[in-house]
């Protein structure tokens, strides 16, 4: 997983919900993300799910293929990491 010195979640208008999820994970941005993408890693830094993000507003991610447990969500704009957060998938 790539590192970024400019990664400061508090300065961004990105929200991820719910943090503890079962099926859909929502990424909401108040600002336009240009050429955006997401990657979900297992905690061993292996990518397990990735896709494109479109503009501002809400993007929903179908997570049925993810195993239960803790993961790291990374949001990129172009090639720069602009947001990271720990997320937990549960079957409950």
Structural write-up:
- With 92 residues, the chain is mainly β.
- It has a single domain, classed as Immunoglobulin-like (Sandwich), CATH 2.60.40.
- Helices cover 0% and strands 55% of the residues.
- It contains no helices and eight strands.
- The chain has strands at 14-17, 20-21, 24-29, 36-42, 47-53, 57-62, 69-77, 80-89.
- Strand 7 (69-77) and strand 8 form a beta hairpin.
- It is globular, with a radius of gyration of 12 Å.
Give the SSE map.
Layout: E1 14-17, E2 20-21, E3 24-29, E4 36-42, E5 47-53, E6 57-62, E7 69-77, E8 80-89
The total of beta strands comes to 8
CATH class: Mainly Beta
Give the structural class.
Answer: mainly beta
Per CATH, the superfamily is Macroglobulin (MG2) domain
Instruction: Indicate the low-confidence ranges by residue numbers.
Output: 1-10
Integer count of domains: 1
Q: Compute the separation of the termini in Å.
A: 29 Å
CATH topology: Immunoglobulin-like
Helix percent band = under 10%
Specify Rg, calculated over alpha carbons: 12 Å
Keywords summarizing the entry:
92 residues; mainly beta; Immunoglobulin-like; 0% helix; 55% strand; globular
């Amino acid at each position: 997983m790539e590192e970024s010195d400019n990664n400061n979640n508090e300065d961004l208008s990105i929200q991820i919900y719910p943090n503890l999820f079962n099926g859909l994970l929502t990424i909401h941005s108040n600002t336009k993300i240009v050429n955006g993408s997401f990657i979900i890693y297992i905690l061993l830094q292996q990518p397990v799910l990735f896709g494109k993000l479109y503009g501002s507003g809400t993007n929903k991610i179908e997570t049925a293929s993810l195993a239960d447990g803790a993961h790291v969500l990374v949001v990129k704009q172009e090639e720069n990491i602009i947001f990271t957060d720990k997320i937990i998938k549960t079957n409950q």
